[in-house]
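Re: the multi-chain job from yesterday

Posting the exact lines I submitted so nobody has to dig through the queue logs.
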Amino acid sequence: MKAIVHKLTRSNEFYVFLVIVALSVVIQARSGQFFTANNLVDIANAMVVPGLFGIGAFMVLVSGGIDVSFPALSSLAVYATTRVLVDAGYEGALWLPFLLAILLGGILGAFNGLLTSRIAIPALIITLGTASVFSGIMQGALNSVQIPNIPTAMKEFGTGALFIATNPDSGLTSTMPVSFLLLVGVLAVVFFLMKFTTFGRAIYAIGGDESAAERAGFKVKRVKFWLYVLVGVIAAIAALVRTSMMGQMHPTNLLGIELLVIAAVVLGGTAITGGTGSLTGVVLGTLLIVIVQNSMILVGIPTFWQRFSLGVLIIVGTGISAIQLSRSRKRSIVTV
Amino acid sequence: MTDLLAVRNVSKSFAGVHALDDVSLTIGRGEIHCLAGENGSGKSTLIKVISGVHAPDGGTIEIDGTSHKRLTPMAAINAGVQVIYQDFSVFPNLSVLENLALTSELAAHRKLINWRRMRRIAEEAVAKIDFDIDLDEKVGRLSIAEKQLVAISRALMSDAKLIIMDEPTTALTTREVDALFRIILDLKERGISTLFVSHKLEEVFEISEKFTIIRNGRSVATKRPDELDRASFSFYMTGREFEPAHFNAPADSGPAVLEARNLGADGAFADVNFSLRRGEILGITGRLGSGRTELALSLFGALKVNHGEILIKEKPVVLRGIRSAIKHGIGYVPEDRLTEGLFLERSIGANAIISEIDNMLTPLGLLDREKTRTEAQRWVDELKIATPDPENAVNTLSGGNQQRVVLAKWLATEPEVLILNGPTVGVDIGSKSDIHTILQDLAREGMAVIIISDDLSEVIENCSRVLVMNDGRIVAELDPEETSEAELAALMAHDESEEAGVQR
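And the result, structure tokens for all chains:
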């Protein structure tokens, strides 16, 4: 028991959890609307897309890299998918849009993977570059415009509800989207991958010490390559979900979400320096950011304060880990 | 019985430079062997040849009776050769368990992780050397000695016959070194050989059964320890003779230039008293964590003191930071010259004159090129920095020469007190002796010098007085002429206070 408490108080996730609890209690006290069925469902709904993106960002961060190209990558993959299907007048089932998006996401991710594993340039610079290339292809070569009518299968998937929650006081309703299951599914798969496969442990090992990983016999380049492919696939799924839920393809809608997603993952305790982090943290970090975004309206705080408090959260959240890092360094100077 | 390892007439050159030239080395079963040589002597190249990283241009390597002409890293491991690098090659973010078991999972080409099997593997690995450790602790939280034991346990897992350790005791305390030696002796019992790589005689002298010394890529001597002493060892390493001598400070009756009264900083050191006169070299020694480094930083204004006072020329001063220390005539040569003291990418000249750059300006406030050039050249000549051109980058220099550039940088501020923290750490014997000569000359010219070092021979040979620190306090003040390395070591190690240190 003592060991568990000790472990808890040392983990970042625990503190994020405390902040979430405190925040929700405050919002509940001020508005009386936080712990209502429809608000909780709204929050779950809003978590799906950033959560999916967050899983990918988490994996890259753990490997010691960073990927800022996923919004552009996934927008391009899903724009191309939607364009092709709409132009062909596709009226079939949902599997084809998913297959196309996943294929394209994987191919574009492979592009990132090739560059980051073969060239000794920081992943940030490479993915900044590929982000420009991807959105350039979409807006220039594909001449992207808004597509108001997406294939029926996607539209139905986007509006499909697991259940509908109603607020007994106001009568407002919120739908729990089918895609929430997708988030849960991807979480489960990636959890298994990171914890129970050599590939997953290799990602942690590379983030811990790349040259030690090389010496231990990990195929570092190959692992990095497939990591970026996988992250491309997950991002494409996220963008497909977003497009389906919006009921239309808005090519630039996702651009800029990367900061929010990376902030959520880092808030959840994933080290920006690589090697540490957990999916629990990803979920909690995303939850915290979504709560801040969604629920401050409940308390009647103007929207610009949302941005302000998000910024403060990011600075405080990353600041704490930076202070911890410099403290442990200082300690090692004195004792070592 | 044949030898475990026989390296015969191995040569290796890189781009025409002979890194190894006809080198031979044999290690018997269960033998504890030390490969010694200065930086750049070719010892790391030899290790890479033995571990299969570099293919030799000529000669043979025989492991366990099998001759290898072209050894690959995998073949070396399969033949039982394991290298423990100085950084141990561990994963700080992973648990001890994973650090131990991951490699064997990889070697077995497994795709899935079975945590229970991994735990069993890890338990067996630590049991081999009776290493008592929490398998779930992150390796990054372990002490250096524990990390080393993790690396040793891991090396032993793959049926190792020869363990190569690169400067294994540099960062360990005496007690940890003893523990390490017990393990090495235990391995010897089981017929596992150890090859230490070192450039210090003291490091592994007591345990090594044979020394192979190489210089400039050639083997110069293979000796038993009883055939070696410090003088002959230095001679083999450098090809130069050094005579140990004590430094005799000319008596100076003038006032103290620097004085500490009851100086203390919370959690680092307390009740420190001493005074320093012109022309004196004061040695401060103590183990890692004894407070010696913190004391040095306080005297240089880089660490805040909470108690007592510092007097400069009999006047109390408050050092509000590094700039104010410099203004009061204190210079500091840091321990880790690579990270603390130099702009490695910039030129030697720019580094040497950086602290006097304010005096190098034209009336318009621009840098006077001509002036900087002559000044840089002056320092290169004065401190005998081995470079064809002061415009070369500092990182083209060897460790000893880099240390001279740091010296130049501080001498340029014309300090009255010069504090040096570990002035010859990582410097080879030849440059070490040169640096000592420079320091003694400075003191003879009237500078007051403080040398902080745990290199006992360095302290005894160069200082007029030695203070021994232990657990944040000065426990003894000694005259180097009347003490010995053994006495100093005993004072530094003093057991009771060490236990107190562990609890803290």
